[in-house]
Give the backbone structure.
Amino acid sequence: MADTPELPASPSAASFVPGDLYEDVFYHPCLCVAVDEENDGIWGISLIDGSYPRSTSLLFSVPRKLAVEEAWEMKRKLQKIALPEMPN
């Protein structure tokens, strides 16, 4: 029987604080605005379209913390896809 690859460990709610940047399950860079340690969830605001709450379960997801530069680059790339430049 082949070995199954291990999934990345889920971060705990304690590893996030309001003000952190993270990538949610829909690949939006988000600003964390709340952490629920009891239910292992975080909530944020999308830096792509301003949608909120962008809630992410830490029990079932593996949100990734982002550096400011990563979040900005993701925003720029996603905006180019969503809003391509119009030809002259």
